[in-house]
């Protein structure tokens, strides 16, 4: 499952150009075990996938590297793919072809694609075409908590009492314990759990709305797209290993 969101070229993090379908083999990274990212291998002769009904084929120009990718390579992501599988959940690029029944997207449209099933670490990936066009000391109103462990307590303490919200969407720092006593007498806040994979499946339109709002903030200059550390596709195992060992700062991306 996944979702495609059309984006404006002006918020693109990487240059995107319309290209014809590859006539030769497609480069992709395939995970061959559940022993970690060192078992990602570069394939140079994979076939170009074909979009089915309601799907689009994306020519990927760059792919984000996430802790979900690491969790999947070690078999610790609930419901994750089994090896051998094509890795990567987050890609940006252009629509190269559309399947039957797709009317909202045309070839050449610039898109952001996310799919927990994988395939973003490849020159081409297929995703469902569920689209939404993108067009003082009192504590934080909203905290996005993805670390867990001891960091969760600091996030709760930094949140505004009563009306503040903490959205927990990751556990890279390990499990954290919070009791009903903590919520009543220590941290009077709204604590929300979020699993991106469940969000895609249960509320795809909500995800699309969030992506649309984010794109508007980027286009308005309120948020900066950032400058990720770029690796070539063949350096995928190295990039994931660096992320797993906490030796990186900021976002990582693979350039295709």
Automatic annotation (TrEMBL):
Pfam family, one: ADH_N
One example GO MF annotation: oxidoreductase activity
Leader sequence segment: none
Residue ranges constituting the Enoyl reductase (ER) domain according to the UniProt record: 36-254
Gene3D superfamilies per the UniProt record, alphabetical: Medium-chain alcohol dehydrogenases, catalytic domain
Protein known as: NADPH:quinone oxidoreductase family protein
């Amino acid at each position: 499952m996944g979702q495609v969101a059309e984006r404006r070229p002006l918020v693109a993090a990487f240059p995107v150009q319309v290209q014809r379908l590859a006539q030769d083999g497609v480069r992709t990274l395939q995970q061959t075990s559940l022993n970690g990212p060192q078992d990602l291998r570069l394939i140079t002769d994979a076939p170009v996938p074909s979009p089915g009904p309601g799907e689009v084929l994306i020519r990927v120009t760059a792919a984000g590297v996430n802790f979900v990718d690491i969790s999947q390579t070690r078999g610790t992501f609930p419901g994750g793919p089994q090896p051998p599988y094509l890795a990567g959940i987050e890609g940006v690029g252009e629509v190269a072809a559309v399947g039957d029944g797709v009317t909202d997207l045309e070839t050449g449209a610039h898109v952001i694609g996310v799919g927990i099933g994988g395939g973003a670490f490849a020159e081409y990936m297929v995703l469902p075409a569920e689209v939404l066009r993108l067009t003082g000391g009192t504590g934080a109103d909203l905290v996005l908590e993805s670390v867990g462990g001891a960091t969760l307590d600091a996030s709760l303490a930094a949140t505004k009492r009563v009306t503040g919200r903490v959205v927990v969407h990751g556990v890279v720092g390990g499990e954290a314990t919070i009791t009903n006593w903590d919520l009543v007498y220590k941290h009077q806040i709204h604590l929300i759990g979020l699993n991106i994979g469940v969000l895609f499946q249960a509320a795809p339109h909500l995800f699309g709305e969030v992506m649309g709002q984010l794109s508007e903030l980027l286009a308005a200059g309120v948020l900066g797209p950032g400058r990720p550390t770029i690796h070539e596709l063949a350096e995928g195992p190295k990039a994931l290993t660096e992320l797993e060992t906490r030796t990186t700062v900021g976002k990582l991306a693979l350039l295709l």
